[in-house]
Amino acid sequence: MPPLLSVRQLRIHFRLEDRVLYAVDGLNYDLHRGKTLAIVGESGSGKSVHALSLLRLLPEPPAFMAGGEILFQGRDLLRLPLAAMREIRGNRIAMIFQEPMTSLNPVLTIGEQIAEAVILHKRLPRAKAWEKAASLLSQVGIPDPSARLHDYPHQFSGGMRQRAMIAMALSCEPDILIADEPTTALDVTIQAQILGLIAQLQKDLQMAVILITHNIGVVAGMADDVVVMYAGRAVEKAAAAELFKRPRHPYTRALLKSVPSIYLREERLEAIVGQPPDLSTPFASCPFAPRCPEVMEECRSNDPDDYPVGPAHMANCFLHKNAQGSRRHGVLS
Amino acid sequence: MKEARPLLEARGLKKYFPDRRRLFVEKKWVRAVDGVDFSVFPQESFGLVGESGCGKSTLGRLLLALEQPTAGDVLFEGRSLFSMKASERRGLRKEMQVIFQDPFSSLNPRMTVRAILEEPLLIHRTHPDPRERIARVEELLDVVGLARQHLGRYPHEFSGGQRQRIGIARALALRPKLIVADEPVSALDVSIQAQILNLLKDLQKEFRLAYVFISHDFSVVRHLCDRVAVMYLGRLVETAATEELFNDPQHPYTEALLSAVPIPDPELERRRKRVLLSGDLPNPMAPPSGCHFHPRCPYALDSCKIHDPALEEARPGHWAACPVLPFKQKPSAAALTYQEAP
Asked: Is the pTM of this model over 0.90?
C-alpha cells in the first residue's frame, strides 16, 4: 500500500536579518494509514517547524520552503494553491498543540469553537453543528458535554482543554492527526489519560498520527515507527521495537542512555557532551560529529547519507556505510 | 548517610493564600501547604514530588524563609527561622541557597557572569580582597564546568544548560550546607538534563551538600534522591527511602503516579498494568472531605470520605497516609512491573 504521506528531501530555511537558519535540511519519511509515527528530537532539531510546514502554517517570510515535497495522496502540499490547502487543513489533516490555552480563543465558548469547525468544513446548520459538538465532547471523555459546551476555555482544566482541542481536531474525521508535544504541559496522571485517549480514538477512526515529542517514554508507549531528528535531519528511522532494541546512530544511543529511568537507579547518567549545533551554516559534515563518542576522520569532512542497517531501518551515519543489511555492526548494540 | 541531628526540619508548616477573586463574599483560602512535617539530614538528598498545584514550590519557599508561614515553623540546625531576628536570618542565608527552574528569569540580564557570582561574596563580605574574590569566582566557574572567558559575558549569551550552571555556581558561592533546587532540570533538553544531574550529584559529594530537590519528574528524583516525599493538595501523603518507595508504594496516589510515568522501553511499557486515575486535581479551595484523594482513588472505601488519615509508619522509616492500601493484596500491580524489569 502506498504511504498516506511522504516527506521527500524537505528543506525549510528561515531568512533572518543577519543570517539564514537551516531549520530543516533534507528530511525524508513515510507515514502509513492507521499508524503512529513518532518524531523525536530535542529543541532546535526542527521537529515542530517541520510539523507546521505540513499544514503550511509557517509565516513566509521569514520561513522559506527551500526544497522538497510533501506528498499527501499523490498531491504535493507545498505546491498546492491556498484555497485547496484550506480544504485539507483541519479537514484531512488536523493538528493539536502543546499548550491548548494559547490555541483556544479565550472569548468564545468551547461549544462555539468546536461548532465553528464543523460548520466550516461539514457545512452543517448551526443546531446540528452544536449537537455534533456535544457528541464530540462526550467522545473525548468530558462529562456532561451539553452543559460544558457553554463554558469558556478558562473554566476548563489543562487536561480538559487538551481534550477539547482533540474534539475539535476530530470534528472532520481527519486522515492524519499531528500532535505536537500534546502532553508536555500536563501532569503525568493527566498525560496518561490523554495518551490513552489518542490511542483509543486512533483505533476507532483509523487515523494516522504524527506524534512529535522529546519524551522517549511516550514514544515507547505510543509509536509504531520512529524518526529521530537532530539538527534538521532524520538521523535514524526504524520501527519502534527495533529502534529501542538496536539503536544504530550514536545520537540515538546516547539519547536513550541519557534518560534517567524510573525502574533502575544508575550511579551516573551518560550525558551527551557539548551543545546542539548552530544551524546558521549548512552542514558539510556530520552535524553530530563534535559530540559523537564514535567519531571518525570521515565524519568531520563528509556529510553522511542514509545507510540501511536492517529491515526498514536506516541510520545517517558513516559507521554503517559499508554495512550490508545489519550484520557488521550488530555487535555494537 | 543519616546523622542524629537533622539539618532542616519542617514542623506543622501551613501556608494559606486568600482567594482574591471574591471581594465581598465570605473569604476563602487556598491551602497551598496544609500541615507538613519532615526532616532533612546533613548530606542527604530529599526529594519532594507532586503534580502542579500540589504546593511543592510554596513549601520550598517556606523552607528558605522567602515566604511567611500561616502556621508552623522551620528549624535549621535546631534554630527557628521565623522567631530569630532578621539580621540573624540573613547570616543563615549563607548556609541555605536556592536553584530555580528557569535560569533565564533568575539571572539578572544586565549583569555579567562575574558580577552575578561576585554579588553574594560582596553582600556577605566573605572575600573583601578583590583578588581573592575573583579567584573564588574563577574557582566556582571551574567547579560547574564553565570557562574563564565566560566571565565577561551576559546570561543571554549562554544556552539553557550553561545558564543553569551559572545558577548553580551562584548557589555554591557561599559554601552552603543546604540547597533547595526547584525543578532545576525540567526546562532542559534530555541530553543537557543528564549533564546537570551528573553535576549536581558530583557537587553533592564534593561539598557534602544536602539537597531538597523539588520535582514533578519521578525518574529524575529516583536518580538523585536518598529519600522522597510525595505531596498531594498541600500535604505529604507518603515518605520513604527512594528504593523502598519505588518498589513498594504504600499510598494509592504514589502507586498511580509511578504507573503513569512512561517507561522508555516499548515492550515493558505496553505490557505493564496501569493504575489510571480518573479526573483532575480537585479545587484546592474546596478540598474533598475525609481523605483528599478519595474521589480519584481506585481503592476508596466509604470510610475514606469521612476520615482524614494521618501519616503512619507502615514500616521503619516508611510513612503513608492511607489505612486502606496496606491491607490490599500485595505486591501491588505497579510494584510488580518494576520488579520484572531487567
From this structure: no
